[in-house]
Amino acid sequence: MTEPSGQKNDKFDFFDRSLIIQMVMSLIILPGITALVALLSGYKSVDDARPVLLTTAIISVILAVIFLIRRVRKRRLTEVLAATQPKTLKADRPAPEEIQARLKGALQRAIVDHEKLFGVDELVYDIQEYLLDPNRGWIISLFGEGGVGKTTLAYEVLKRYAKQSEFTRFAWVSAKQRYYSLTGELRNRESVQLQWADLIRQIADQLGLELGYSRTEWLDDFRKEIRQLPSGEKSLIVIDNLETVEDIGVVEYLDTPGSLDGGVIKPHKVIITTRKSVMARSKNVIQIKIKGLKPHSACELIRFLGRGNQDIETVTNEDLRPILSITEGNPLLIKLVVNRFLLGHRPLGVILDELRGMDPQLKDFLFLQSFTELERVFGEKVLTQLITAFCPRVAGELLTYDQLLRHSGIQDKQVFRDALKLACDLSLIRVSGLETKYSIHSLLWEFVCKEETDASP
Taking the model in full, what pTM does it have? Predict the structure, then answer.
């Protein structure tokens, strides 16, 4: 767009060339010419010419002041005109109303059930910083165990900061096959998108990109179309619940700078949520580990969920410790416990015992997919040896690398090393501390180690 006349610069240049020339003429040249004329007119001394020189000096100062006043008035007029002038949009950038409608459409596709967030303000701020950064954060991976709130975080960041980050197009797709409801049901998603071509088709539809008729060409079509968006358009894509190795191949697709069409990212950005680490897939990945809530935040969540219930509102944080111990701050598990307590009218201890017993659907949601992947790569025996290696110790106890190797009984050290890495990448085994110690979730310990104990003679 062309600039309005008289508005070539957004910032008014007060001391520009014309003002400098005017000041030099009034304060230097005019007095100098007057002094020269006085000298040529026959004045015998400076004292004789003093009245003329003094008058000239006064006139020079008056002129300089007039020039300055005119300049101040011109600056004020320029500021008024700028304030009343309608702000021009960046070339090819849609109107704010259209951008808001696009964002609303993307948010409506997310499956979230939160009313208020607890203990994640710092995380939300960090993700926002990556969104705003023009030089990094092209692929932001929210990585962690099932139920820790990865999807909720992605939703909240999109809702709060997407427009501030100058994005104009938005897409939200999910590769999740099933999700666990607070009623204890493992539900199938109505529209399951499992193949990458189908996901890309859905993203393209939301971004307003036109793909061809052939499904086999959608991946190439999408990459070409997104690279041809107008310069004022920036897309933010959320790909929720990438869980398997096949799914993770999308990272290479998003960041393929060596291809003829270029990758999908830059200037566009992608947020993915996953239980599997993708750090090794691209140098453009920023991975943020999402963990359970800290005790204080977990207690706040419990009281918020149980508001209106006197039993929950009046207990101390110490009284809530059994819930924290079994859930380890996992928001989904906390909601499940509180919901069952409010609706079931049973003692808290009974509900926690049921949770320790791990109903099959909850077990499947939290662990089955990772178990299946580890078993596919290394076999059932290695999977069993690695996970049951934690059983000789109490739930939550940390093991060193050597202790874990010894308890597992895996003879091939390379197999052990590779299986351990994949188990950590799949969020089955946790890594902590500079000395690198390992643990598993207390519910996983209950599930694996209690079954092993029950199965033993």
Answer: 0.69
